[in-house]
Amino acid sequence: GNSVTQxxxxxxLSEEAFLTINCxxxxxxxxxxxxxxxxxxxxxxxLLKATKADDKGSNKGFEATYRKETTSFHLEKGSxxxxxxxxxxxxxxxxxxxxxxxxxxxxxGTILTVHP
Amino acid sequence: EAGVxxxxxxxxxxxxxxVTLRCDPISGHDNLYWYRxxxxxxxxxxxxxxxxxxxxESGMPxxxxxxERTGGTYSTLKVQPAELEDSGVYFCAISHxxxxxxxxxxxxxxxx
Lengths: 116, 112
Fold this sequence. Notes:
The complex is a heterodimer of chains A (116) and B (112). With 116 residues, chain A is mostly beta strands. Chain A has strands at residues 3-6, 11-14, 19-21, 23-26, 32-38, 44-50, 56-59, 62-65, 75-77, 86-93, 104-106, 110-115. Chain A is built from no helices and 12 strands. In chain A, the strands form 3 sheets. In chain A, strands 2, 5, 6, 10, 11 and 12 form a 6-stranded mixed sheet that branches. Chain A has a 4-stranded antiparallel sheet with strand order 3-9-8-7, with no helix packed on it.
């Protein structure tokens, strides 16, 4: 079956540091890949997505590239801010781009804390 | 923009009691999903409604869980009787067409 493995946290960084959160996956076919973020007291929000190999998703300074050869979708940001403190979830959908993304397989989440 | 309201935001019940969680999506979204995150682990799919019909309930853990979606609008998830291992955060999500999921804030369930 499908699975997603994220680097274990928590991750603690100083403001303006570089961030990488690793994510690897196992899936049949050609899944779509997502990063969701949960800020304190809020629901999950879609941060970015990529629907095919070599696609790069980006949003709010975050980026992730769909690497089929390494089955990875690592999240990066060049300079984190205190407001980026949240829980980050990597996820996949085994429905190809253009169809429903509804049934997602999630990783266990990575807590990020950014200090001033 | 799509919205999903879940309530209660937090529920504390004793083992053996019944709890009903509710999800109110903004209208016009045929697809409604329930997910659960237990004890800081990964978020897991529970089930999927298309309008009022259950499209996929393969993630429902056992027959103590019952989900309904009246008239294809709001949805409820009942746990009866609740067990300690049911504690966690229950998320509702919606989508329309090919759009990615939009999640509610979740209901934190604590079974003591």
